[in-house]
């Protein structure tokens, strides 16, 4: 995020600075070039008068001494050409022959035309600046004067200006980078504090708050709202924990009394009731384990599930046995089909609770005279407990919504229930690293499968 902000702010400013700097650098180069060209033309105009007089009288000595002093003083080369284009007078002791460029410009001047403006000089340019002017006498061209100077001086001056400009621009861009970075940090630092506080709350630190509300006004308001939200979440969680602790603690006493009454009543029953009494005891002990787990969660906020290798076939048979009477009263038969040796490393109590919720849902919606089938099998690395009923089923678009809390299909609003069973089973399976999957078996009804990780005894 910070990198994107820096790019968004810095890149346009840099582009604008480069555009302005490029225009200014070119303007400086043209200005220096124009100054050099003007100076050369002025000097050339001075020597045109002397060259005209010398060509009239046919004596190069009239101008050569002055041309020589000028060349020695400024390091330039001044030459006078006669009407035929031959070198007639020079400011150098050993003048060089005219090169191709010089000859072309001299020929142009002898035809009565002035040379073109001096070409631009840039820091990477090499060579010389050359200007040739015709010498007129009563409207006739009687010769030409050339002035040639090295481009080192204007090139060095332009390079010095450009170097200064680059240094200034580098400094400006560096300052802009620092300013944009500080601005991005000022904007994003509150967001980072919010992110850290949210992460702390996610890990159970419900008292996490943001004490510093610096930054933009919008972020300050967001921090205040976040702190208020965190306080409300903490109060809600605290109330939930208190309710769970109170409910689980209060339920332990009547459950204990109920189990004691079962033990007392069992002493007066004949042995034919031993099996039913033992089932009642087991259900009571299972409810005690559930209450202990609920109380522990309320105290510590952690489930601390007791993972062990569980025989899922045996577990499913036990739970089906516990639901047989309820199913029989509704005219429904329960059947178990299980593979041998289907084990899972999981928490038995949580799996039992999830399976109870699924069986309860199947018995509730299955019509009388049908069979609810519970299948336990291997599925690759997973172990599956599937409950299949022959009730009204669900539409395909309702499969994802059926595990939402308090959701019920519109056609089942008259059926008693809260819409929590499959949602609870889904949550329990997630805590066990498993999954609850709902599908259409194809010939009516619904198939709800508990997928659990494998395990060996």
UniProtKB/TrEMBL annotation:
It is a multi-pass membrane protein. Its EC number is 2.7.13.3. It is an enzyme of class 2 (transferase). Its main location: membrane. InterPro entries: 2C_sensor_his_kinase (IPR050980), HAMP_dom (IPR003660), HATPase_C_sf (IPR036890), HATPase_dom (IPR003594), His_kinase_dom (IPR005467), HisK_dim/P_dom (IPR003661), HisK_dim/P_sf (IPR036097), Sig_transdc_His_kin-like_C (IPR004358). Its cofactor is Mn(2+); Mg(2+). Residues 246-456 form the Histidine kinase domain. Keywords: ATP-binding, Cell membrane, Hydrolase, Kinase, Magnesium, Manganese, Membrane, Nucleotide-binding, Phosphoprotein, Protein phosphatase, Stress response, Transferase, Transmembrane, Transmembrane helix, Two-component regulatory system, Virulence. It is found in: Cell membrane. The keyword Ubl conjugation does not apply. It catalyses: ATP + protein L-histidine = ADP + protein N-phospho-L-histidine. Coiled coil: none annotated. It comes from the Bacteria. The chain crosses the membrane at residues 162-188. PANTHER family: SENSOR PROTEIN CREC. This is Signal transduction histidine-protein kinase/phosphatase MprB. It comes from Leucobacter rhizosphaerae.
């Amino acid at each position: 995020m910070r990198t994107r902000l820096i790019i968004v702010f810095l890149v346009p400013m840099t582009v604008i600075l480069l555009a302005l700097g490029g225009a200014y650098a070119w303007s400086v180069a043209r200005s220096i070039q124009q100054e050099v060209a003007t100076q050369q033309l002025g000097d050339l105009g001075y020597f045109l008068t002397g060259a005209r007089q010398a060509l009239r009288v046919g004596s190069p000595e009239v101008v050569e001494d002055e041309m020589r002093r000028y060349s020695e003083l400024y390091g330039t080369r001044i030459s006078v050409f006669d009407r035929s284009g031959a070198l007639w007078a020079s400011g150098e002791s050993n003048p060089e022959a005219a090169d191709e460029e010089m000859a072309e410009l001299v020929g142009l001047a002898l035809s009565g035309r002035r040379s073109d403006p001096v070409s631009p000089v840039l820091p990477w340019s090499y060579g010389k600046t050359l200007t040739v002017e015709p010498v007129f006498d009563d409207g006739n061209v009687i010769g030409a004067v050339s002035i040639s100077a090295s481009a080192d001086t204007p090139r060095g001056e332009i390079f010095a200006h450009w170097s200064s400009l680059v240094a200034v621009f580098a400094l400006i861009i560096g300052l802009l980078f620092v300013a944009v970075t500080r601005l991005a940090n000022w904007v994003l630092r509150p967001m980072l504090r919010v992110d850290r506080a949210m992460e702390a709350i996610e890990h159970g630190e419900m008292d996490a708050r943001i004490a510093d509300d610096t930054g933009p006004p919008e972020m300050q308001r967001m921090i205040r709202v976040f702190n208020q939200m965190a306080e409300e979440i903490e109060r809600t969680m605290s109330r939930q924990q208190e309710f769970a602790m109170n409910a689980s603690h209060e339920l332990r006493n009547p459950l204990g009394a109920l189990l004691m009454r079962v033990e007392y009543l069992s002493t007066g029953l004949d042995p034919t009731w031993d099996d039913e009494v033992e089932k009642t005891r087991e259900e009571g002990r299972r409810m005690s384990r559930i209450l202990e787990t609920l109380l522990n969660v309320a105290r510590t906020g952690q489930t601390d599930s007791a993972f062990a290798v569980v025989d899922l076939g045996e577990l499913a048979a036990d739970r089906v046995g516990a639901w047989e009477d309820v199913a029989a009263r509704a005219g429904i038969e329960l059947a178990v089909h299980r593979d041998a040796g289907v084990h899972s490393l999981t928490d038995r109590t949580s799996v039992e609770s999830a399976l109870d919720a699924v069986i309860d849902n199947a018995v509730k919606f299955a019509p009388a005279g049908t069979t609810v089938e519970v299948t336990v099998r291997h599925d690759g690395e997973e172990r599956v407990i599937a409950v299949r009923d022959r009730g009204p089923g669900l539409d395909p678009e309702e499969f994802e919504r059926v595990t939402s809390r308090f959701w019920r299909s519109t056609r089942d609003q008259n059926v008693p229930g809260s819409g929590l069973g499959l949602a609870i089973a889904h949550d329990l399976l997630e805590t066990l690293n498993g999954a609850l999957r709902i599908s259409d078996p194809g010939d009516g009804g619904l198939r709800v499968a508990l997928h659990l990780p494998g395990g060996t005894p």
